[in-house]
Specification:
Pfam families: DUF3515
Strand content: 35-45%
Structural class: mainly beta
Distance between the termini: 64 Å
Number of strands: 13
Mean pLDDT: 84
Number of helices: 2
Oligomer: single chain
Order of helices and strands: EEEHEEEEEEEEHEE
Largest sheet: 8 strands, antiparallel
Protein name: DUF3515 domain-containing protein
Number of domains: 2
Radius of gyration: 20 Å
Length: 171
């Protein structure tokens, strides 16, 4: 038989398990805002598959729909349902079959947004605390539950016109 007593002021949870006492620390909920399309049912397919650890960081509880966080303090933040990105000149990385647009404008905070998936998922990663590539690998199995509708293209993927017309994807 297990009974649980919460001591909110002390920030501890005491669990009694057939005569044993276990003490665990209580970590604060990570405050986040839901993305514009957080209620999209496809986000639920991703969220229920999020791993309990990412880059060896423990999962944290968040207060917003279709979000995730890992690390204490949080080094990885996830939002599902962000605006689907338009074509961009920012670098696009393919990691385990998932295309990610990388924005290092706020380095050491890196922003990765899925490309060619609707709804889009955004990650904010503190590169001083965790490797971005490890995070992208660890989250690929969850993110792949949002079906791909397109993929990143580079200059090598375009047929460049010789007659002044607009470039088109190579066939």
């Amino acid at each position: 038989m297990t009974s649980r007593i919460r001591l909110l002021r002390a920030g501890l949870t005491i669990t009694l398990v057939t005569g044993s006492v276990l003490l665990t620390g209580c970590t604060a909920i990570v405050p986040m805002e839901p993305a514009t399309d957080a209620v999209n049912p496809t986000c639920a397919d991703l969220i229920v598959r999020l791993p309990t650890t990412v880059a060896s960081l423990p999962e944290r509880e968040t207060n917003a729909q279709s979000t995730g966080a890992w690390g204490t303090p949080s080094a990885v933040l996830l939002h599902c349902g962000v605006d689907v990105p338009a074509p961009t000149t920012l670098p696009c990385l393919t990691v385990n079959g998932i295309d990610w647009i990388e924005d290092d404008t706020d380095a050491p905070l890196y922003r990765y947004t899925t490309y060619g998936r609707d709804p889009a998922t955004e990650l904010v990663i503190d590169s001083d605390k965790v490797s971005g590539s490890t995070v992208l690998v660890d989250l690929a199995n969850a993110v792949e539950n949002i079906p791909a509708t397109g993929k990143c293209l580079g200059a090598e993927d375009l047929l460049l016109p010789t007659d002044g017309e607009t470039a088109a994807p190579a066939q």
